Amino acid sequence: MDWNSDGEWDIVSGDREGYFNVYVMRDTVLEPHLQYPLMDLTILDVGYNSQPAVVDWNGDGKKDLLLGTEEATSGSMRTRRSTPGRCFLPFDSVEAAGQPIFLNRVNPYVFDLTRTVSGT
């Protein structure tokens, strides 16, 4: 995915300790930006066994994070919406039927499951 919108492929990754890690491609070299800092310079810790997906979750044209985690009792799926300048807002729970999604070791991926069936 293109994290910094420069036309180059970059890598985003979670890790066992819960950090959100970014590797930015500069020319032909990946530069690590491990343990991504927030605007206040604190480190973005999304929860144990983090699994991020970058997506425009709310359709505002900005890259948001869809985050899977493993918490002490159960995993959860949360979003962290971005603002201009890639400052992330506090976590929001992802809900289904009005209830937060709790699964063990959540690993979110985002797809459009809408399918067009052509006539024969």
Number of helices: 0
Low-pLDDT residue intervals, each spanning 5 or more residues: none
Rounded to an integer, what's the Rg over CA atoms?
16 Å
The overall average pLDDT, rounded, is: 78
Give the strand line-up of the largest sheet.
4-5-6-9
Helix content: under 10%
Question: Would you give an account of this structure?
Answer:
- With 120 residues, this protein is an all-beta fold.
- 0% of the residues lie in helices and 37% in strands.
- The protein has no helices and eleven strands.
- The protein has strands at residues 11-14, 20-26, 29-33, 51-55, 64-70, 75-80, 82-83, 87-88, 92-93, 95-96, 99-100.
- The strands form four sheets. A four-stranded antiparallel β-sheet has the order 4-5-6-9, with no helix packed on it. A three-stranded antiparallel β-sheet has the order 1-2-3, with no helix packed on it. Strands 7-8 form a two-stranded antiparallel ribbon.
- The radius of gyration is 16 Å and the shape is globular.
- The termini are far apart.
- The mean pLDDT is 78.
Q: Which labels suit this protein?
A:
120 residues; mainly beta; three-stranded antiparallel beta sheet; 11 strands; globular
Brief write-up:
This protein has 120 residues and is an all-beta fold.
SSE layout and pairing:
Elements: E1 11-14, E2 20-26, E3 29-33, E4 51-55, E5 64-70, E6 75-80, E7 82-83, E8 87-88, E9 92-93, E10 95-96, E11 99-100
Antiparallel strand pairs: 1-2, 2-3, 4-5, 5-6, 6-9, 7-8, 10-11
